[in-house]
Design brief:
There is one protein chain. By secondary structure, this protein is mostly helical. Helices cover about 60% and strands about 5% of the residues. The chain has a domain at about 55-105. The protein has helices at about 15-20, 40-70, 80-95, 100-105, and strands at about 5, 25-30. Strands 1-2 form a two-stranded parallel ribbon. Strand 1 (about 5), helix 1 and strand 2 (about 25-30) form a beta-alpha-beta unit. Helix 2 packs across helix 3 (about 80-95).
């Protein structure tokens, strides 16, 4: 069901794996730099746009790991772990939007 797959440059060599897991998805992984670190401006701007989208998602997971202790998950059963993860992600969205939410409530 995935439409797009984002990843950092470590996944650039995993195109066959991505195609196998999500056949309809477009691959939006960052491309690696060429030898000697030279990369043209168009590729650099494409990588930067892809990284902006990934950063928003990874920041959310960082909040969940740091504030609610999701660095490791104890085995409690798949359903309990999934419920806990969805609840933690919903709370993290509220936590990250707290400034906007409080700003709307103030007169």
């Amino acid at each position: 069901n995935e439409q797009r797959v984002y990843g950092d440059s470590a996944y650039a060599s995993q195109k066959a794996l991505i195609r196998g897991k999500a056949p309809q998805a477009k691959d939006f992984t960052n491309q690696r730099t060429r030898r000697c670190g030279v990369v043209d401006q168009t590729q650099r701007s494409k990588n930067r746009n892809k990284s902006r989208i990934r950063a928003r998602v990874e920041h959310l997971f960082g909040v969940v790991k740091r504030l609610w202790g999701f660095g490791k998950v104890r085995y409690r059963g798949l359903q309990k772990n999934a419920t806990r993860a969805f609840t933690a992600l919903a709370l993290a969205n509220i936590y990250l939007a707290r400034g906007r939410l409080l700003g709307q409530m103030r007169p």
